[in-house]
Amino acid sequence: MDAKFISRGQLPEWLRSLAARFAVLAPARAGSSVIYRPVDPEAPPRQPELAVKPTESAKRALFPLSEALLTFVKNQPDGKPGLELRETPPPRPCLVFGLPSCDARGFLVFDPVYAGSGTAGKFQDNYYLRRREQAVLIVKTCPRPLSTCFCNWVGGGPASTEGADVLATELKDGLVLEALTGKGARVLDSALLRPAADEQLTAAAQSRAASEAAMPPPVDISGCARALRGKFDSAGFWQGHSAGCLSCGACTCLCPTCYCFDLSDEERGSRGVRLRSWDSCMLPLFTQETGGHNPRAAKAARLRNRISHKFSFYPDLHPSLPGQDGHIACCGCGRCIRSCPSAVDIRRIVTEALGTAAEGAE
Question: Fewer CB near the terminus (10 Å): N or C of the chain?
Answer without folding.
Answer: C
